[in-house]
């Protein structure tokens, strides 16, 4: 079946957040934690100021969402700029079909086309293995971007081929 990716506008926000909800509720976490985390993970219209949101469609149904920040690169090792992959969500009924990989690659191509050297993600603990399989590596506690006094524990980076 053919998969299509398209940029989403604010009018699709309800559908985008339904994908986020479906993905979050599929995570292997206690129900209470999912319920508490969901509002912080869903997107609002103001987020369109900083982010581009892309959806993957399968038979005209939105089955995946990727959100990235193209306009505010992060410095890595003072030698290159990397783009923030802010969110990646695949509907629970469409997981393990390559949709997440396709969305990551789409964002990576867009980031590389504007001169970024890689993608940076602050992963959830439950998705670290997934991102590792997608070519991301865990950053050391003192490694940029995002290093600080108490860095986010699951910071991962995927550099593009030079």
Summarize the structure in words.
This protein has helices at about 15-25, 30-40, 100-115, 130-135; strands at about 5, 50-60, 60-75, 80-90, 120, 135-140, 155-160. By secondary structure, the protein is of the alpha+beta class. The chain has a single domain, classed as Gcn5-related N-acetyltransferase (GNAT) (Aminopeptidase, 3-Layer(aba) Sandwich), CATH 3.40.630. Strand 4 (about 80-90), helix 3 and strand 5 form a beta-alpha-beta unit. The model has no long low-confidence stretch (mean pLDDT about 90).
Overall tally of domains: 1
For the largest beta-sheet, the strand count, sense and barrel status come to:
7 strands, mixed
- For the biggest β-sheet, the strand order reads 1-2-3-4-5-7-6
Average the pLDDT over all residues and give the rounded result.
91
CATH homologous group name: Gcn5-related N-acetyltransferase (GNAT)
Structure summary, number of beta strands: 7
> Mind telling me the CATH class?
Alpha Beta
In the predicted model, the low-confidence regions spanning at least 5 consecutive residues are none
Task: Specify the number of helices.
Answer: 4
| Category by helix and strand content | alpha+beta
Query: In percent, how helical is the residue content?
Result: 25-40%
Shape: globular
- Could you say what the CATH architecture is? 3-Layer(aba) Sandwich
Question: Beta fraction of the residues?
Answer: 25-35%
Distance between the termini: 33 Å
Rg estimate, integer Å: 15 Å
Strand/helix succession:
EHHEEEHEHEE
CATH topology: Aminopeptidase
């Amino acid at each position: 079946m053919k998969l299509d990716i398209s940029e989403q506008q604010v009018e699709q926000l309800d559908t985008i957040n339904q994908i986020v909800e479906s993905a979050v509720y599929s995570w292997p976490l206690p129900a209470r934690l999912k319920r508490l985390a969901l509002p912080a993970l869903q997107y609002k219209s103001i987020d369109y100021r900083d982010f581009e949101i892309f959806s993957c469609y399968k038979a005209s149904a939105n089955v995946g969402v990727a959100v990235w920040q193209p306009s505010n690169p992060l410095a890595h090792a003072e030698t290159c700029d990397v783009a923030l992959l802010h969110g990646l969500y695949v509907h629970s009924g469409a997981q393990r079909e390559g949709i997440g990989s396709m969305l990551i690659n789409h964002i990576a191509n867009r980031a590389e086309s504007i001169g970024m050297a890689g993608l940076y993600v602050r992963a959830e603990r439950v998705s670290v293995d997934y991102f590792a399989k997608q070519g991301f590596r865990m950053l050391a506690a003192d490694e940029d971007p995002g290093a600080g006094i108490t860095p986010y524990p699951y910071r991962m980076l995927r550099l593009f081929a030079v």
